[in-house]
Amino acid sequence: MRVIVTGANSGVGKATAAALAAQGHHVVLACRDVEKGKRAAEEMTGDVEVARLDLADLSSVRAFAESIDRVDVLINNAGVMGVPYSRTVDGFESHIGVNHLGHFALTCLLADRITDRVISVASAMYLFSRIHLDDLNWERRRYSKWMAYGESKLANLLFVSGLVARGMRAYASDPGATDTDIARTLNLGRLQVLRRLIHTPAQGARASLQAVTTDLPNGSYLAPRFNQLGPPRVTKLRPKAVDPVMARRLWELSAQLTGCDWPD
Fold it and tell me: What's the whole-model pTM score?
């Protein structure tokens, strides 16, 4: 299969791409930093290529999509977490812009070339958040980087529901508590006991890897025990993550903001 993994130059994305390449798949490492992507590819065994994709810039998303003639599996893995208030090139708040809107646009632009499925990497942080459609880009609310991150992860799950409603095979995966560059925003590395307990990137990649080949019901969510530790298993989502009305409304707003939509 041909698989695209966004954010595949480090962490869970890199581990996911490396495992898929070792299994014999053709893997595209879609990375904002091409040089880091090339260094990551040099450490992998198998059929790997590197392409530039900056999810914080819709012109980059469009250019990348135009370069792809076919993809079997799209893994929307890249993301930012807990960053200070900032905006993307197109003026979106960074968490919702990169984690959701960039991937929304990418998936819609590739819709007619995805032959199998889409996998979105989510997070248990969705549990503590709700979507604010009236202020998705934090223009009026007092900014909270963790609430912004959680809201973007809830958006990922609602996006999966939207894809399923449109007939696309789609799954959500959750790496759980994983020792990666993005998680080090939490300074977990300073707590050596905790660091020994949390997942390695390879362990964090297990849910996405399972989602690549699973025959579970469409829209299933694969997450570790308590959404944090252990091997992935089918996990029931809270109603707010599969609310069809909210999924439809978020989709409509995302299409309006990005200028991208699912083909008729």
Answer: 0.92
